[in-house]
Amino acid sequence: MINNKKGFFITFEGGEGAGKSTQIKMLHEYLSNEGIASILTREPGGTKGGEAIRELLLTGEGDKWDPVSEVLLFSAARREHILKEIFPALSRGQWVLCDRFSDSTVAYQGYAYGSKSVSLEEIDILYRISVGNFYPDLTIVLDIPVEEGLSRVKGRNEAINRFEAKEIEFYEKLRSAYISISKSNPDRCVLIDALRSKEEINSEIISLVKRRFC
Ligand code: T5A
């Protein structure tokens, strides 16, 4: 679908409260200070339609959607995002920094729901339909013990969403899923210890980005 990509596509992944939003903003600011144009976006969301789907997905009861319905909704939002925001920005030469992307679908809908999870084959088929043969240049996976991530989320004093009120086993499966995804995609994913100060993590991410792309 894209044939004139000039910028780099970097995704941030990890469990609840791992610090993705914090770190993505810090990298965005660093790139801007270096004179590198980048856009900061998120999933689900990033477009008008995607943000409307985000509202459907994140609000309401925990069991409001069947896991397959969730994958279909995330995929629809992703398709809009790819076509209307991500590909155009990469073609203009901007870097795209995305808070969550397809690894979230694999980790949440493909693993964390246990016996109710959607098969990885089905998730892959929907990825090919909605995105095609296109993948991030780099995925930063922030790893944090479950209790610490959840305590950070609670400490924010914001309303919690549908994915922040699950049983503890859900988050343990999620953490294992991200470790497994990182090990299975060593060229694309880098697992980062998020149980450190914001500045230490930011400095490791900047070194990584410089080594890969600058
Ligand atoms: N989802 C998404 C799916 O199920 N499938 C999918 O395909 C996709 C794309 C999105 C939800 O959708 C689900 C996953 C998600 O549950 P969201 O609101 O975007 O929901 O939620 P999250 O992405 O989980 O974002 P959070 O805001 O909850 O967590 P972050 O971004 O990881 O953490 P952040 O940066 O907001 O930090 C949390 C708190 O910790 C502090 C921050 O200041 C903040 O208060 N903090 C630190 N404190 C100490 N030390 C550090 N190093 C810190 N870093 C941050």
Query: Number of helical runs?
Result: 8
Biggest sheet strand order reads 2-3-1-4-5
* Main sheet attributes: strand count, strand direction, barrel closure: 5 strands, parallel
Are there runs of 5+ residues with pLDDT below 50, and where? none
Total number of β-strand segments? Answer: 5
What is the overall silhouette?
globular
Q: Report the order of strands and helices.
A: EHEHHEHHEHHEH
Q: Which terms would index this structure?
A:
single chain; alpha/beta; 8 helices; 54% helix; 214 residues; binds P1-(5'-adenosyl)P5-(5'-thymidyl)pentaphosphate
Can you walk me through this structure?
The protein is an alpha/beta fold and 214 residues long. Helix content is 54%, strand content 13%. It is built from eight helices and five strands. A five-stranded parallel beta sheet has the order 2-3-1-4-5, sandwiched between helices. The longest helix has 26 residues. The radius of gyration is 16 Å and the shape is globular. The two termini are 26 Å apart. The mean pLDDT is 97. Bound molecules: P1-(5'-adenosyl)P5-(5'-thymidyl)pentaphosphate. The site of P1-(5'-adenosyl)P5-(5'-thymidyl)pentaphosphate has 26 residues, from helix 1, helix 4, helix 6 and helix 8.
